[in-house]
């Protein structure tokens, strides 16, 4: 079983570099962080985690509105930045009232430079790549990782290679990867197959892997948790009870849990104040939900996965060994939602001015479901993470929204059209909002 405990007084092992090293969560072996390229434990194949000789505290965070504000929690002081992070923590009063919780906030990660939280991981990952002196970066992606890799790799002047599942990536994401200069390979297979291939390429020394298997990506993504805790506390004088997020490879779930563990170890977060990590998956791709329900340590690989939420269309979540304990230890849960529930949540968010892609809306759909079943209490302070921007998947947005109405090029005709539609349109709008 994975050991994710952090010592109260960490001591840097000999292999550490400036107080940073990598520890295997399965066998506990320590590894040098930047001597040679490793992604998993060379002793046992287990997942690695970055470790530090000191823990971050809130008073160390200052200045810049970017991931690098949190350098006290990161392996470096700065890196290639666009700048990422500093995303809004929206209030959504109507949705809050409808869902029925004490507080509902939306952490909109779609407001990052390339439109998803992947930028937070990439700014740190590319900095590490520079330290290692590699010249080609690669990832498998359902889309957003490739957009972030292409942008950050390009800015760093490095070659970028992305492997995408043919026909299963939203239009906006491919457009980004293409324009930011990545070499795009469309693989005849799903995301999990792409990850198998790119891991082979990385093992053969052909490229530096920047999927969330790379422990340094998760270090950057920890800053989502740090921002939520800081801002929520400034606004409300306490930390949120629960953070609800969509789960694909479970990198974000793992990153948030690491954020909390480090704050607890450093004494700035009481164990009882740790938000409950609550993961949401699509019904057609829910191996994490299955593992939580069945009380298993590992996920079973789903060979066939399908959902409108392409960013979480993943059957073999690589970070499950880090994320499952996070969900359990924080007292959270995991829930699956249908594509229709996702689309409804996407509309509800959009009605409050928050435009997100389908995977992101899964968080709100999941919260709704857990409120209805009573698993989430009406007295809770909840933050839902929306992971990617509406424009990432313009086809899904257009399908979920209303259709354009053709009118003649004539003002009187347009007025007649508006008068004729207003009753029907208003009624239709009301009917839709009931479902
Ligand atoms: C990557 C991604 C996810 C899944 O995140 P994991 O860390 O892999 O669980 C969810 N939503 C969007 C928009 C993403 O890009
Ligand atoms: Zn090991």
From TrEMBL:
Record-listed E.C. numbers: 4.2.3.1
Pfam families xref list: PALP
InterPro entries: Ser/Thr_Dehydratase (IPR050147), Ser/Thr_deHydtase_PyrdxlP-BS (IPR000634), Thr_synthase-like (IPR004450), Thr_Synthase_bac/arc (IPR026260), TrpB-like_PALP (IPR001926), TrpB-like_PALP_sf (IPR036052)
Post-translational modification N6-(pyridoxal phosphate)lysine, affected residues: 118
BP terms from Gene Ontology: isoleucine biosynthetic process; L-serine catabolic process; L-threonine catabolic process; threonine biosynthetic process
Recorded superkingdom: Archaea
Catalytic reactions on record: O-phospho-L-homoserine + H2O = L-threonine + phosphate
Domain Tryptophan synthase beta chain-like PALP: 80-388
Keywords: Amino-acid biosynthesis, Lyase, Pyridoxal phosphate, Threonine biosynthesis
Binding sites annotated in the UniProt record for pyridoxal 5'-phosphate: 144, 248-252, 387
Enzyme class: lyase
Cofactor(s) the protein requires to work: pyridoxal 5'-phosphate
Pathway: Amino-acid biosynthesis; L-threonine biosynthesis; L-threonine from L-aspartate: step 5/5
GO function term, MF aspect, one: threonine deaminase activity
Record-stated family: Belongs to the threonine synthase family.
Function: Catalyzes the gamma-elimination of phosphate from L-phosphohomoserine and the beta-addition of water to produce L-threonine.
Record's protein name: Threonine synthase
Gene, per the UniProt record: thrC
